[in-house]
Amino acid sequence: MKKTISIMTLIAVIMLLALPDISLAENLSDQVCSQIGNRIKGAEVSSKDAYPEGLPSVSPLLSRFYAGRGFRPAWSDDYGISPDMEDFLEVTRAAYREGLNPQDYHLNKIEAVLSDLYASQIRLGPYDAVKLADLDLILTQAFFLYASHLVDGRVDHQNIYPDWVVNERSADLPAVLNEALESKEMQKTLADLAPPYPNYARLREKLITYRAIAENGGWPKIPDGPKLIKGSRGERVAILRQRLIASGDLASTTQEKPDIFDHDLEMAVRKFQKRHGLKDDGGVGKSTLKVINVPLETRIRQIALNMDRLRWLSDDMGRNYIFVNIADFSLEVMEDEQPVMAMRIIAGKDEQRSCVLSAKMTYLELNPFWRVPDSIATKEILPQIKKEPGYLAQKTIKVFKDWSDNAKEIDPMLVNWSRVRASNLGYKFRQEPGPLNPLGRIKFIFPNECEIYLHDTPARHLFGRARRDFSHGCIRVEKPIELATYLLRNKETWIQKKILAEIKKGKRQVVMLPEPVNVHIFYGTVWVDREGVLQFRNDIYHADEIPYDLPLRKGHVAGETQ
Quick one: which H or E segment has residue 394? Predict the structure, then answer.
């Protein structure tokens, strides 16, 4: 990255070089050190008036950093301001490249203090130790804030998605800053904090591309009207052509009759539809028109949000793992970052969202029982029992007092269900293995706090739907037999033929995996596929509606959670 020097810095340097008889303040660094120490120690006793008006308060992380270096300034020495400052400011001014907001990092306050410092230099006065202390504290806090955003995100995704339970990245930010100052590689040190996943880097490039599109005028909105198909003519076709050229779905070539819907335009529409998860019929009807008219600013914000979500994943996904993208209704089995198996999935409804999490799959069950969750038991099972006395027998559901290993089965005919209320149910329901069991033939277990799992389903027809959010939170998989065969491939004799034979017996059986397998369930509405194509998907859980451009998440001040 090309380094720049601010005009104010240049003026100060020129003044110093032009006036060699002006001696620099002796022990300037000691004076700044004293100011910082007094400020930090004062804040620990009482935060009131401990920090100049209009400047950020002293955070615990700030105190820890300066105490660890004997309160010595980080951004100046006896000769004045360190070049590290300009390196850092160059990074924060370009924070938008990482999907971040430069103004989050106190740029206005930093520029104001710098202006005062450089003004005193122009007046031939010494550096003001108080102002240098102000600058040091603000820069350090800005560094921690920017670094923490790269490490664990700018916003709290759990605020709008309570079932988002994974947030595994962390860093010792004081150590990171010390490393940056000692190595004089400020920009590289910060860049190394970004998520290591290839998709993050690819999204960053697409974000830059989309911002460039915006700077060049964006893309036009297509007016409402009849469905546009091959052979259509008119101004709306010409606007459609401009729109698809702007987003890169159609090559920019000279067209003698741009208002005619030709073969090339049809192929461009199909490309657009495929990368937005739409039915690729090559025509622009209501559903495609709605998506194609999403404002460019919305897409830029969506890319930035999805980059932020990637900051919540673990740095180490594992060499081999299962990756589920809820928004794409897809599952991939990965080996060394290459897919070896892919299938469709069915995810939770909006009111019963599938959790975003990371866990380790340790075993699977053939012919599993379905222990009915209490929420389903009270809202769905109990009302059916009251309507149909034989409902439990029809569905092969047994009744127990609790889930203990020695719990005795209760005869449902001896229970007066009319007097049972949802608020005091007092019973547990377990559906036996078989064709009526909603878990199908196989359940894949990875212990997690949401108590969800992957499983088969008898409702195979639902995999033919484009939008597949039908479950109560667990993930239904399209190819359970193939997945089980893969997971047990290193377990002697457990070939597909044996798995099918054991299932045919109809008895529940637990099969341990040869080794645990990482499972990552994610919610990504934007990503770049392996062919370099930017993909968008429908925001089924409204998670993209988080106020990304508004204040930061509560309590997330300069890495206080570190």
Answer: helix 391-394
Distance CA 324, CA 345 (A): 8
**Helices 7-18 and 107-122 meet at what angle, rounded to 10?**
20
The alpha carbon of residue 364 and the mean position of all alpha carbons in its chain are separated, in whole angstroms, by 28
- CA 390 vs CA 102, 375, 393, 413, 417: distances in Å: 64, 21, 5, 9, 12
Which residues are registered as beta bridge partners of 154? none
Structural domains present in the chain = 7-193 (no CATH), 222-292 (1.10.101.10), 303-369+437-546 (2.40.440.10), 371-432 (no CATH)
Q: Which long-range contacts (CB under 8 A, 24 or more apart) does 262-266 make?
A: 262/230, 263/230, 265/230, 265/237, 265/240, 265/241, 266/229, 266/230
530: exposed, middle or buried (C-beta count within 10 Å: 0-12, 13-18, 19+)? Answer: exposed
The pTM (predicted TM-score) of the whole model is 0.87
Going from the C-alpha of 441 to that of each of 348, 362, 368, 465, 481, the distances in angstroms are 20, 18, 7, 22, 9
Which tokens sit at 485? 């065969």
List of residues 6+ apart from 187 with CB closer than 8 A:
1, 87, 90, 91
Instruction: Specify the pairing of strand 338-348 against strand 330-335.
Output: antiparallel
Amino acid at 487: L
Reported as a single tens digit per residue, the pLDDT across 479-529 is: 999 999 999 999 988 999 999 999 999 999 999 999 999 999 999 999 999
CA distance 232 to 75: 64
Of 197-201, 241-245, 313-317, 493-497, the range with the lowest mean pLDDT is 313-317
Identity of residue 542: H
